[in-house]
């Protein structure tokens, strides 16, 4: 077969596109019987060059292929909204790449055999890392088993900043909270809530000692001190 043509197989697969000396070479579309589909370049009957591969599960890869596998630079869209942009070797994420997670966090770094390399363990964030949330907020600091735990800094889109201790994604332990107007609070936190005694410092240097009780409303205390 030579030129442009269509081939159908008994199992339901079909190809329509360019042929050279009886093999798929050039631009063409191949559809598997399970609904998977490739639209792109072919060399010697193999996916090779730039193309798009889609699955019935809504997975989608756009990028380079070699010998029928994802190889080179490409973008993989996962069904849950997650996305990887980076290098591929023999069908696996290997090299440099960026992974966008569904919770808004981002991993940028090295990959080996489909797993994030660096300060990760068993493909979970463990060690130092940073995320940028969809809201625009950022966290830079420690992780344990994919959870924000340890020492870290959180910066909100509005300019608030917390520096201190964390457990399971919540402020927990000693920390400093900086307000956009220059005021700051230093004290203890339990499960994301200011608890116990702390020092509030106005931007002019004046300081007040504050005690937060379990039943005290944060709004009520904030209004009393005009934060």
Automatic annotation (TrEMBL):
Keyword Cell membrane set for record: no
An annotated GO cellular component: cytosol
UniProt keyword Repeat present: yes
Superkingdom, natural source: Eukaryota
Cross-referenced InterPro entries: MORN
Pfam families hit by this protein: MORN
Keywords from the named record: Repeat
Protein name as annotated: Uncharacterized protein
